[in-house]
Amino acid sequence: MIPLLLFFFQAADPALLSQQGAQALRAQRFNEAESAYRQLVKIDPANPMWRMNLGITLHSAGRYAAAVPEFGQFLKSNPPPGPAHFLLGLSLLKLKQPCDAIGPLEKAVRWNRDQAQLELADALYGCKRYGPAAKAYEAALTTTKKSPAVARQAAHCYWNARQYTDAKRLFAVLPLDDPTSQYEFGDTLVRLDGPEAGLAYLQSAATSLLPARAELGKALLALDRPAEALPHLEAAATADPALLLPLSKALRAVGRIPDADAAQSEYKR
After folding, report:
1. What is the DSSP string of 103-133?
2. Where would a tag sit more exposed on the chain, N or C end, judged by fewer CB atoms within 10 A?
3. What is the Cα–Cα distance from 111 to 15, expressed in whole angstroms?
4. Which whole number is the average pLDDT over 142-150?
5. Does residue 32 carry a pLDDT above 60?
6. Nearest residue to 248 via CA among 209, 218, 223, 207
């Protein structure tokens, strides 16, 4: 009985539990670490560090939903920007809750810009706040050694935000070796400099992307090349009824009047 009592008092000792939890966490024995920190939370619920360490343990184990309230409890008594904001935001990103992740990650950037800038950009992008996301990705370029993938994402966000001048600035210095980049850059050039400027990029992208075929068809129609525009518009109009109007114009221009009337009626309908 006495040895059992001694074991109980040792196990309940906060200093010993803290040491056990830290050792288990470093060794990635997450179940042991969680057990130690949960005991510490019960023994000393007023100590926010046990909540923080428990959150870190759960986050490290990939149990993001369980980690979120622990970080939240810690931040109630420790609101200044710090690593808990970063881990909370990252957990929310892992849970596919990017809009909720923005607030914590904005505070994390104030704590450590190099650590949290890219995650903030991802959260803004996931929340479809494309303009702020583009700026955040550009800011992250200073911490990612000017990664082409990050620059590409910034350009993509500027394009989604219809900030075409900024999109062009970034696309112009990127390797445009994939259809999506070719399509977005071609569309950007058409909008800024006219249909001829973006034609080559749209033609490259149109072999694999239906939206690129749509923009290529409209660009060719604007250049008074309706016969070339027609197959692209016919293909793309099956997915986007808004294209029935330029399709009807192309059909009319090549003399297919009944088909043009039918496309225009369908567009109005």
Report:
1. HHHHHHHHH-HHHHHHHHHHHHHHTT-HHHH
2. N
3. 29
4. 81
5. yes
6. 218
